[in-house]
Amino acid sequence: MTSTSSTDRSFLHGHSNGGVWDKAGAPTGEDAWRSVELGGGVFALEVDGGNPGGTIAMLVGKDGSVLIDNGLQKASAVTVAATEKLAGGPVDFLISTHLHADHVGCNANYAAAGTTIVAHEETRRLLSVDDTFDKSGLPKLTFSDRATFHLNGMTLNLIPYSNAHTLSDTIVHFVEANVIHASDLFFNKVYPFIDLENGGSLDGFVAAQRQIIDMADDQTIIIAGHGPIGNKDEMRSAVELLLAIKDTMEPLIEKGMSMEEVLRENPLSAFEQYAWFHIPTERMTKIVYCLLTEK
Description:
This protein is α/β, with parallel strands linked by helices. It has a domain of 205 residues: Metallo-beta-lactamase, Chain A, CATH 3.60.15. The strands form 2 sheets. It has a 7-stranded mixed sheet with strand order 1-2-3-4-5-6-7. Helix 5 packs antiparallel against helix 6 and helix 6 crosses helix 8. The N and C termini lie close together (9 Å). The relative contact order is 0.14.
């Protein structure tokens, strides 16, 4: 196995403040959300200022409300206000797709308001041993395989994946609306983050994305965890991007080059257009180097 020469592995970690790695490209303005109606009572909440978290999805209607993910704790007041405005009151159910703080940072706020929190059992376990997570926001209902909600005339299929973005990720398929919230199994038009230290893998990430693509048709709306709301073709492009990055990096690793040597060569310069404040190209290079050498 090729190894890195540096003991600094902070580039592999998510951060509770939203992980601003490129200060020049850091988000500006106050934390804010904008709601986008997708049909059938399904909404997406996209970032409309600052850095409140990853993209959120909601189902609202006469039977109640379901929220998928929330955001960073620092933006909790804004997030709760935005979701309660859509729901017409406190949110009934919250589905936590995975352990990262930009998706579960407000769990404790929703629990305090009486929201029932749902997650895969492995996601709950990971959160239970995370020292940065407020344990009052732990899921109260868990599932081991798939789970289904029937609410407001909508079928919500909760489909788990392992060893992809993290050890445990869940997508939510709003069947009748033909909408999939892929959460962080889809980074649209930006470099993806794969959490090696929490069980993620490059091959598992691609395999999960391909399964989601197979689930979709040409009219399916696919909500990305980060980046604009997308579709099947854009998710296919995201897979092609990651595979192209892998193909670019593997020959250098096979030569036995160290991380520092690879960084000096800057092999991902051709992909610079996908850099963003959370993952500039240098960080992406380091992450992929570790993903390919620490399998």
